[in-house]
Structure formats: structure tokens, C-alpha cells
Amino acid sequence: MTLLIQYTLIFASVLILVALGGCISEHSGVINLGLEGIMVIGALGGALVMKFFKTDSSFLMILLVVLAAIVMGMLFSALLGVACINFKADQTIIGTAMNMLSVAGATVFVKAINTAADPNDVSSTIQYNGPKKMFIERIGNFEFNWFMVITLVVLGLVCLFLYKTKYGLRLQACGEHPQAADSVGINVYKMRWMGVLMSGALGGLGGICYILAGVSEWKFETGVAGFGFLALAVMIFGQWKPYRIALVALLFGMFRALSNVYIGFDFLYNLKIPSSVYNMMPYIVSLIVLALSSKHSHAPKAEGIPYDKGQR
Amino acid sequence: MDTPYAIEMLNITKRFPGIIANDNITLRLKKGEIHALLGENGAGKSTLMSVLFGLYQPEEGIIKKDGKEVSIKNPNDANALGIGMVHQHFKLVECFTVLDNIILGVEDTKNGLLQKKEARKKVVALSEKYGLSIDPDALIEDITVGMQQRVEILKMLYRDNEILIFDEPTAVLTPQEIDELMKIMKNLASEGKSILFISHKLAEIMKVSDRCSVLRKGAYIGTLETAKTSIEELSAMMVGRNVNFHVEKQEKAPSDVVLDVENLCVKSETHNLDAVKNVSFKVRRGEIVCIAGIDGNGQKELIESITGLTNAHSGSIKMLGKDITREKIRKRNVMGMSHIPEDRHKHGLVLDYSLEDNLILERYFEPEFTNKAGFLKRKNIRKYADRLIEEYDIRSGQGAITIARSMSGGNQQKAIIAREIDKNPELLVAVQPTRGLDVGAIEYIHKHLVEQRDADKAVLMVSYELEEVMDVSDRILVLFEGEIVGEFDPKKTTEEELGLYMAGAKRDEVKA
Amino acid sequence: MKKLLKNDGVQTFLASLLCIILGMLIGYIVLLFINPAGAGKAIMDIMRNFFNFSNPLMQLKRFGNTVAKTMPLLLCSLSILFSYKVGLFNIGVAGQYCIGVCASLYAALAWHWNWFFCMTFAIVAGAFAGMLVGLLKSLFNVNEVISGIMLNWIILYFTNMTLNKVKEVASPYTLYIDQVNPGAFLPNAGLDKLFNNNQYITIAVPIALVVTIAVYVVLNKTKLGYELRATGLNAKAAKYCGMAEKKNMILSLVISGALAGLGASLLYQTGYMRWECTSASVPAMGFNGIATAFLGGLNPIGAIFSSYFIQHITDGGSYVDKSMYCSQISDLISSIIIYLCGFVFFMKYAFNKVLNKKKEPVNNANAKTDKGGEN
User: Fold this and answer.
1) Chain B (338-397) residues lying within 8 Å, Cβ to Cβ, of chain C
2) Is C370 a member of any domain?
3) A141, A151, B136, C314: which has the fewest Cβ within 10 Å?
4) Does residue A51 fall inside a structural domain?
5) pLDDT at position C357, please?
6) What is the domain-level CATH number for residue A209?
């Protein structure tokens, strides 16, 4: 049971981080379908730090890994910003391209590093068994992960940002009615860039959190298994509101955690349901949830529509 | 240097590809005056104001404020100079509160956090001073259009603007709301604000403004003292000739009922209440029935349920005696219903299709245009399109193969009219058929509507323009908050009387 | 000359070419970063693909392999563009392809059906998966990209689970069709002779080409195509004039899914590949279909060329020097190309702007007047 709670919390953390990223981006008016790719690149950044940086201070390690993931995520999200904000490209195509680009790019990159170190090593795997332990505090059976705290802090900060700061107000105005924002002198492009970069930061953070959730090595060819899109489903069901997103993420996190730990529950194990079914669960649940919650959506009104200063 | 002028726009020229929107225009706004800017649609009024507000940069000409030359590169510059604008389409974020909308862009912060206390005080004070009676915590989506306009005014006052631009502010208001707006404007002027007031409604201009400048087709025609001129003179200046707005039509007695609506209720798209409540009326052959009312009082939902775009949840709609309440759109079309939609870009046309493909949009499945195997008969389509282009005088660059997007608004509307009327309908539903068109196109469309009526068809029209309602219709139904509150004969009523009903100040028990 | 340059088709072609060149260039730069020594050779190896063999007969045979794999890619790309014409981005094509694999292999290996029924079953399975996306979209307004991705994962696990029953004992791969049920192979019909007896060249090639032409005809010459395109360009106008826009959406996704399912059958029933029952992601074929659809300018005929090109460099990737680079460099290049395809609209716009600069743009006057009128 502790194991279930532990996995639920950590997967929920991933979903919260990434969904908040999507939420900020959409509030600024840009649909970020590249979150999946941003997660991969963020994870890559963090994993590289863990591979190459040696320290005994877990604080320093956590700080650097988190920073690397954030920076890489932001850099990668700039691809979305340039294309969709400045060049008004189709946000769906660009998002899809970013997802493919991230996996192919990370694979090529990691393989190149591995092959350079050892010509016989053609894998796309990075190991981080040692540094991973620094993120975890054992409390009895429960493995406490520092990302749970980071997520809580981020959740608080995002709420504060969206509802209590002037940039939050302006950002939301750009997603709802960019012409209105423009008419009071707000630079819509700038605010949308801010939204995209912040979603890049949160997506990158979610990515590193995801690969640290269970295993101690990551094969970059596999990407992040649709988690970026699950996060978007969480965001839609959470109606673009941070605290609702957090609650929904817990629900989704639990279904994802079940596939990791169902063997530990005798009654579930005795049902003899193939593991594939548990793997499917989060996706099936999200489809059902989407079907129930998409009809009356509270999406920002201007999301997905490129802003053109000339059109008023 | 002392000058009586708050703003001087001197020799402004603004070109867009292929068109000169403002040709060497000079406009001087005195301090504390209400200055009207008069012109038809497309005369260049909005462009000129956009130049003043920093939305466009002029190719030639200079702008002076208090006698000093200034450069206005964007709305921020305009704001810094004390220039504010109420746009025709409000620039308000619907899901924000009134207060958030007012402070947006000029927020006070402390340690990075928003501080709204001072702002609220100032807003409440301003609201009282000018009699605007606004609740700062209401959501924009919950308040009336008239209130939303006051929020826009407060936005300018909150920014301490001295020069206030009103872009067609009365288009969305009831006559009573217009009166109140006039009062507010006079109030503002007497407090020393200078007001530029864009309109093409002559009566309002005569009522409220001190001076009036007239534009026509991008050119400056002249400036007059309102007190020393007449509606006729202004009208002639605006149009360039003396026009007769009145629609010519003969007396005609309506005959059989074509459309029979009974106790119709339709849910709103935006909230959970009914947008149309228990509405009943009939439309007969040989009459034009006009639904009057302020935008947003259920017209959209009423028309959508009649044409089949949404379903009514109770009540019935009968056409030619048959119940069509739940019929598909296609079925209604085939039965003889034609629909000229409110938004020609959104509903009326596939803008990236050619003109000919747009002309068969409702008939492509007929054997004339599609063979049994499902292939389109291109030759017949071309022949049909060429005939309509000829008969309805639709002008376009390359004839039948012109992409609809590249046609002018008037010709796009003509294409829709041709498509809908050539079907030879029993019932023609027209929603705001003249929106955004110039005088010539309006005359053309009114003529066709009356022709349909004379050919013994039933015509149901929705319009927000009282003048049009009075001119074209044989019978007027006023819709207020989803209910029919009055039925009138246009020859026996006045715009003022209609206004009272439109605003909900009066109502009759109507049995249509 | 100028008239030619103004032609939309020509512009699309030029833009696609530019995307390819830029994509290759960026790929080359990446190679330079990894190891400058072999970068030039590696990019040439990728472009040469089967020409890396010196023996012409061997070249021909390997060319056959690339052709065989182009067919499913072409079908996936048709699937994407068909739904895109209706305004839907069917990213679920990857899953629809996957369920096609599942259906055709299971029918072949477990039920011993002959090739035609296996193929039909794959088409039906793909169509069904497409229909799910369509139903979710039209009945519940679920974004088709997100539901498509969710279905991709569900289908992946379902396929792993199902094909697990027909896998070899010792490996995670499914059984060989020729050992269990050779009747499930698509007939060669003598076409293999054209490619130096390449057994993977089957009637899949003519089937794919005929389907391509059929898609072109349906979209451009028929009532159905007229309706679908109208729905894609302006769904509200389509509804207003009485087209059943929901039915059209579902129908187009059903057809789109059927195309993807057929694509799967056209590859897996040649025996070229077997399914790995521990697969951790859906086959990339579907996603590459997105690249080829856009690279081909969303034109079925263009898709033939773009599909071949992408498959050519994907196969070419296996010829790079493995001691320095990995074969995924091709995937990287194709994903860069998709990214650049997002800019095609802008490229055309910029291109037209340059073209129009030379003569005063008088013919725009009407359009602008209209806009001015509504300001």
C-alpha cells in the first residue's frame, strides 16, 4: 500500500508539473503539443548532469539537475515559440515535429556519447544509479522523493503567478482576448513567449522527474510514453485551473502507479489480468475522462490562434 | 504656445496595398468639444482613428498635441499622451472582472503582487463622479452591453485620458441607452475632456456634437458647426449625392401561413438558461416580418432553431403545415427554406472555395450537378454559376473560378443572395443582410428582399438597425430577453416607441 | 516564367525542396558535431542508400526493399492527408497502423486465413480505430490529437498482448508466416522478377498506387470530396448548408484508419518484418506518414514522391559508419523536415511577397476594400 501511495505521488508530481506547463502555455494562447518532447529533452539535460557531474552534496546535485532540466526544456520550447508565435506556423504540426525531434535527437546524442566512450556501446541508455539516491529519503518503507516537495512549491508559485501578479493577469488576457491586451499596450508576442518558455521549464522539470520516478537508468529511444499527452488530458479535465489540475493528477497518477505495483496486491494479482491491461489503464481512463469533460470546455478563447498585429 | 486645439491631425495619408484609406486628411479637435467624425462604412473613419491611437502608422502627415508635434507609434504612446479609445468591438476580457479589465496594463504592484485596493477606490470614485454606476467585481460576461461600454469609458478615465475617442458607440445600444451615453459624453466634455465621436447616424450627431467633420471614400470633405447645419446637408456631404433611403414598395395583403412557430424554447449556448422563451409567431406569404431588438436578446438562437443549426427543446416549428422542429438542415433547405446568415465569412461561404463551388453549396447533390456514381458534373456547375453571375451582377476578378476570399464584401454578399434566392424558396430567412455594406449594396439587397415578398414568398428578417427595420418590414416583432414583447405595424409606430420595448421598459401581451 | 512561379503547385514543390535541403544541412551539422571526420561520408551514405552496393543486381534488390517499405508509408501518408482535408489531424494513424499489424498477423498466424481476408481484416481493424477517434471528436468534442495518442498506447499494449499468443517460444517475435501459413503472403504476381527476384515485391505496390489515385479522385472529383473539403475549410459553413459535418468527420477518420490498416497489411504480409511483442512504442511508420504527407504538399501524388524520399533516407541511415554514428540520424533528419514543413505557409507568403514586389499589387484592392469596410 505504501508502495502504491509512493508511486501515485511521484507520478502525480510529474503530471502536475507538465500539466501546469501546458496550462500556462494555453493561458497565454499557445497550445503546446510538444510537451512530450520537452519532457524528453529536459530529462536528457538532467540525466547528463547526473552522468558527468560528481558531487557528494545532494543539495548541489538536486539543484544542478533541476536547473539543467529547466534550461534544456526552455531551450527546446523555443522551437515552438519561434515557429508558432513569430512565424504563425500550425501548432499541431510543430508540436508533433518536436516530439519526434526530441526522441530522435536525444537518441542520436546519447548514442554518440556512449559510442565515443566505448565503441562497442551502441545503446541509448544513461545510467544514474548513484545520483538517483540523492533525490530520495527513506522514511520506513516509504521512499520520499524531493520532487514531491518541488512540485508542491511549483504548484503554489503557479497559482500565485496566475492569480496574484500582473504578469499572470496579462498572460491570461493574451489567451482570452489578445486584441484587448494589445489595445492596452501589452505586448502579446512577449507574453506568449513567456508562456511558452515557462511551459518549457515546467515540462523539462516534469521530464527529469519522470525518469527518476522508478528506474535508475533511462533508454532515450523510448521517449516518455505519452506522459506529455496524459498531462494535457489532466489539464483539460482540470479545466485549466491549477488546484483542479493537482487533484486530477492524483487520480491519473494512481492509475499509472497501479501498473507498477499491482503485483503487490493479492486480490489484483489473483485476477490474472495481463500486465498490458494495467499498462493501458491510464490511457483508457484519460479517454473516458476526456469524453466526459470536453463537451463544455473552459479553454482560453483565443488558444491556438496565431496573433497577427495587422488583424484587428 | 497657446492653442485652442487638443489634437491636430494634419495632412494624414494612409495607404494599404491597392487602396488609399486616408487621403490627405486634416482634423482639428478643440479642447472640451465633442467633435463628430461622419462617413459611410469604408470612408476611412476607423483608419484615421487607428492612426491617432497608434495602431497604424501614416505614410504622410503629422499629429500635434497641444500645438506640439508628437509621434504615436503604438497604443502605449497614445496612452502616454492621454488619448483613449472605446473600440467598436469592445476590448474586454470576458472572464475577468470589471476591475481587472480596467487595471489591465497599468496594474499597481507591491513586491511583485497585484494591489487592487487603491484601484478599486479610484474606480468607484470615477464611477460616482460621472454617474456610471458600475460594480467593479462583476464579471464582464455577466453584464449588459451598455454596462460593458461604461467599463470601456472607465478604462479611459482610470488612465486619466484627456482625449476620448468613441468608435461607433451607439451601434449596440437601445435608444434609451443611447440617450444616457449622450448625457455621459456631455458630462465628460463639461469636465474638460475632448471627445471624438465616430458615427454614421446623423440624428445622434446633430444631438450631441459641437462640430462635425465629414469623410468620403478616404477623402476629407469638410468641417461644420453642428448648430449651423442640417441633417440634409450632412447627408449630402457624406454620400456625395442626395439619396432616398426609403425603400419603394407597394401595399400587399399577406395570404397563407408559411412559417408557424409555437411556444418555442431554446437553450442558450453560453449559459444554462433559455435564450428563447415561449415564442410564438407566424410568417405569411407576401409579407416581410422583421425581428427587432438589441443584439443578444435571443435572435441568434431563435434563427438557429428555425434554420436547424440548433434544436429547440420545446415548442414546435411548422413550415407549410409540416412539423420541422427536429428536421435536418438539408431537409429544411429542400423543403424551400433559404437562409442568408448573419456572418457571411463564418457561415455563408467557404472562403477558399471558388465562386462556382460556393454557388452550388446547397444544391451540389442535385442530379443536375452530381451523377449517379457520385462524381461532380463540372460543366453544368460552370454553366449554372455563369448564369447567376450574370443575373445577379456578381463582380469578381476571374468569374466563376475566382476564390471567394478575394472578392469584395458586397459581392460576397451578392453571391449568397443569388444562391439563396435562385433556389426559389418559400421562406427566406435573412439575418442582418446588409451588415457592413455600402449604400449601393444595401439598396440592392433591400430591392431583392422586397421582390421576394412581391413574388408571394414569406420573408423573415432580423436586423439591429431600427432604420432598416422601419423601412423594409411589413410587420415588426420586438424581441427582449428571449420573449416577444410587442408587435407593430411600421406605419403606426416610431423608433422611440420601439426603443422602449427593445429596452424592456414596456411590453404587451402578444398573440401573433 | 513568372506565371510558373506563381502556380501554387510549383511553390509547394519548391518549398518542400527547401525543407529537404535545410533538413539535410542541419543533419550534416549535427554529424559534424558528433564527429567531423566522417560527416560528409555519412550524409552521402544516407542519400546513396542502396547505391552503397557496387553490384547493380544487388542494388536492384535493395532498391526493391526500399520500394516495399515505401508502400505502407505512402498509405500512412494518404491516411494523414485524407483526414487533414477535413480539418482533422489524425495522429492516431500510428495506432491505426499498429492495429492493422495486429489484425493481419493474428488472422494469418492464429486463424490461418488467406492473404485477402487478412488484408480485409486489417483494413476493418484500422477503420474501427479511426472511427473511435471520430466518435470521440464528434460526440464528445475530444481533441483528436490527444485521443489519437491515447489510443496509440492502448492499441500498442493490446497488440503486444494479442500477438503474444502467436509468438515464437524463444524470442519476443511473432512466428514466421511462411512456416505457419504461406497463404497469407501477398501474391508476387511476377513483380518480384523486376527487382532481381526480391520476394518482398508483391501486389502491394500496384495496390498502393491504385489506392493513391483513388484517393486523389475521391477528394477532387466527387461529391464526397467536395463535402469533405468544404467541411475541412469551414466546418460551420458546411453545417449551415446542410452537410452532415459530424458524419463527414467520422467517415473521413474511418477511411483514414482503413488506409493505415491497409498499409500495415501491405508490409507485414510480405514477410519483411515480424512484430516484437515487447515493443515499447508504436511503429514509427505512422509518424513518418505525417512527415511525408506535409512534405508532399498534402497532395496524394506528391505523397508518392515524398514517401519514397523519406523511406530512402531512413533506409540509408543503416549504411552510416556505426563506429561513429547511429542509424537514427535519419529519423532526426525527417523530424527536422517536418518541423520545417510547419513554415511552408510562411515560405509561400514570403515568396509571393517577393514576386509581387516587382509589379504594383492592384488586384488586391478588392480584398482590402472589404476589410476596410468592416473596420
Assistant:
1) 339, 341, 346-353, 357, 361-362, 364-365, 370, 374-376, 397
2) no
3) A141
4) yes
5) 67
6) 1.10.3470
